[in-house]
Automatic annotation (TrEMBL):
Claim: Flavoprotein is one of the keywords in the record: no
Protein's GO biological process: methylation
Single GO molecular function: methyltransferase activity
Domain (Methyltransferase): residue spans on this chain: 59-149
Domain of life: Bacteria
Swiss-Prot/TrEMBL keywords: Methyltransferase, Transferase
Name the UniProt record assigns to this protein: SAM-dependent methyltransferase
Record CDD domains: AdoMet_MTases (cd02440)
Entry-linked SUPFAM superfamilies: S-adenosyl-L-methionine-dependent methyltransferases
Amino acid sequence: MSETAYLSSVRASYDAVAVDCARLLGTALDGRPLDRALLAAFAESVRAGGPRGAAGPAVADLGCGPGRITAHLNRLGVRAFGVDLSPAMVAVARRSHPGLRFEVGAMGSLDVADGALAGAVAWHSTLHTPPEELPSLFGEFARVLAPGGHLLLAFGAGEGRVRLDRAYGHAVDLTVHRMPPDRVAELLSGAGLAESARLVRQPEAGEDCPQGFLLARKASPAA
Ligand SMILES: C[S@@+](CC[C@H](N)C(=O)[O-])C[C@H]1O[C@@H](n2cnc3c(N)ncnc32)[C@H](O)[C@@H]1O
């Protein structure tokens, strides 16, 4: 499937599920202490070390969906904004979090200047990217991060892919790619993003595979 076809399917599928996805994901972080711990560690690292704009370090939530992670990061004291391919998801995010910034966009070609971000999060949003496109995607993440900037990825840890034709009660056309954390770390490293920590936890309610989390950092000239 060409990149255009894959992005079109992802956009159309998430447009269809946006409202129900937001409702079902709404409080999911409440019962996930390890996930919250990683987001807190990421936010603290960004606050401590990131380059600062006038209003604090800027962080992009890439593939933000309904904006729950964007909002959580803002509560943790970083100036996060969301980007998502799906206009319906962005509409839900704007409605749910009226004080925050959300834009429609593809995370593989961001409308963000080189080195503008102190941090970026892709929280279960790289899962539909075909593995052969990950080097280019991670290259784009590295481009927008400032030297010393932090990246946090959450993804389904494992091998292979799963086809989905229904999700959140709607017809969809999605492929979910699982990746071994070693492979993700290797690809990040190839893009200039060095692993600083990782966690793999067992699946919890509503999850069908172990969950991988990787923190990485763009090299800074002083390092
Ligand atoms: C499983 S949802 C996760 C949403 C959000 N990160 C969360 O955890 O609540 C995946 C989201 O990633 C978005 N997405 C997938 N591929 C994308 C791409 N290439 N560019 C921008 N958004 C993308 C989808 O539109 C969808 O909203």
